[in-house]
Amino acid sequence: MSAKRVPMTAVDRSWLRMDTPSNPMMISAVLVFDKPIAISRLERIINERFLCFRRFRQRVVDEGDKTYWQDDPLFDIDNHLHRIALPGKAGKAELQALASDLNSTSLDLRHPLWQMHYIDNYQGGCALLIRIHHCIADGISLVRVLLSLTDKTPEPAVKKVSLSRPLKEHTPSIINRLLHRALDTTEAATYQAKLFMQSVREEPNYPLKLASTATGVAVDLLKLGLAPFEPKTGLKNPLSGRKHVAWAEPLDLAEVKACAKALGGTINDTLLCAATGALHRHFKASKEVIPDCGIRVAVPFNLRPLNQPIETLGNQFGLVLVCLPVEIADPVMCFRQVQENMNRLKQSYQAQVTYSLLDLFGRGPDILERRALELLSNKASAVLTNVPGPREPVYLAGSKLVQPMFWVPQSGNIGIGMSIFSYAGTVQFGITVDKAIQADPDAVMGYFRESFEALSHAALAGRQESIKRLAG
C-alpha cells in the first residue's frame, strides 16, 4: 500500500458511516481569546503543530466495502481556515448563533474533514470556531491536539520544523501490527495458545481471571442489549438537523472540589449531579412528567492512556450508559444515587464492549450498522462528556485563552449533547440541542448553575452540622 493512501480502521469507519443530515459527526470547539491573533502567525502555528499530523492533509476515499485515507493532492489551508467578523458590538448571543449555524452544516467530503473559522471583533479579542470529523479521532485526542497549538507563556521560543520531518501517520504500533497479522493467518490458534501459556507461567491464576473477565464482558453485552428503551419525553423528538448551541458562565473549580470533598465523592460525581439537577429543573419548568426511572446519557470512556503522547490519531474509546436520577429532587440524595451508579459502571466492561461493537459494525455492511445504531441510540436521551483540561492558562500566538468549549456529536436519534470541561481553575458547561427538541438551551445553562449551587449549599451545610455534632 502506498504511503499516500492507507486503509481506514474499522472503528473510524463506523464513525464516518454514522454521519447523517440530522446529526453530522463533528467534534466542535469554541475558543475565546483575550486579544486578536495575527492570521499569519496563526497559519504558521497550524502548519507547524496541526498539519504535522498527516490525517489533516488527507481526504476520505470510499470504494464500496473499502475506505481509505488519501493525501489531498490539492491541499490548501485556505480551504480550511476562514476569517470572518461578527456585526457591530457582537456578544455571546451572536457567537452562539454562528456556532449553531456551523454545527448544523456538514463538512465537505471532497477535502480533509476539518475547518477553522477565525472570528474577528469579539469582546475586544477574538474567537476560533473549530470543526473536525469524528472519524479522524476521538474527542479527548482532538482536545489534546488543539491544546498542543498553545503555549504556557505568551511569548514562547519559536520552534522550527524540519522539512524532512515525516508527517505523523495513524499507524498501529508494532505489537498491534504483529497481532493483527497473526490473527489473519492460520497460525492464530497457535499464537493465542503461546500467549495463554506464557500468561499462565507468569501468573498461575490467569485462567481464572480470564474466565472471570470473559463472563463479565458477556454479562455487560447482555445488559446492553436488554436495556429498555428511553422513556418518551420531549428530549426524544424526531430531529430537524438544525442545532442550537449555548454555554454557561464558568463555575469556580475550587468550589466544585469543596462540594465534592464535603460529600465524600469525586468532582465527576458532583458535575454529573449538577447536570441531573439541570434536567430535573427543565422537566419541572416545561410541566412535563418526570420519568420515575431516570434517563440515560451516553458518556464516552477513554481507552487511551492519558500519559501517552498523541503520536497517532484515530478513535480509542468506548461508550457507557449512565443513568441520571432526574426524578430525585433532593440534591444530596441525587448525588448519592449518581455516585452509586458511577461506582457500578467503573466495575463493568461496558466501554470495552461498545468499542468492540463499533469495530465489528465498521467491518460489516452499512445496513447492519444503521440498525445497531438505531437500537443503541434509543437507549439514551443525550450524550455527555467530561474532559479535564490544563490547570493553568494557555496562550495561542500570544493571546490568552479565556474560555474553551468542546462538544462531541450525537448519533442516531439523540438530539442533545452536554459538555463539561475544566480549565485554569474553572469548569465550563455547554450544550447543543436539536431545534426540534423541547428544551431551551439557555435556560438549561441557568439550571446547571442553580443545581450546583443548591448541591453545594446542602453539602456545606451538612458538613457544618457534622462538625457541630462532633464538637458538642
From TrEMBL:
Q: Which InterPro entries match?
A: Acyl_transf_WS/DGAT, CAT-like_dom_sf, O-acyltransferase_WSD1-like, O-acyltransferase_WSD1_C, O-acyltransferase_WSD1_N
Q: Which domain of life is it from?
A: Bacteria
Pfam families for this protein: WS_DGAT_C (PF06974), WS_DGAT_cat (PF03007)
Q: In which pathway does it act?
A: Glycerolipid metabolism; triacylglycerol biosynthesis; Lipid metabolism
Q: What is the enzyme's main class?
A: transferase
Source lineage: Bacteria, Pseudomonadati, Pseudomonadota, Gammaproteobacteria, Pseudomonadales
Name of the protein in its database record: diacylglycerol O-acyltransferase
Whether Acyltransferase counts among this entry's keywords is: yes
User: What NCBIfam families does the entry give?
Assistant: acyl_WS_DGAT
For this chain, the family text in UniProt reads:
Belongs to the long-chain O-acyltransferase family.
Domain (O-acyltransferase WSD1-like N-terminal): residue spans on this chain:
8-270
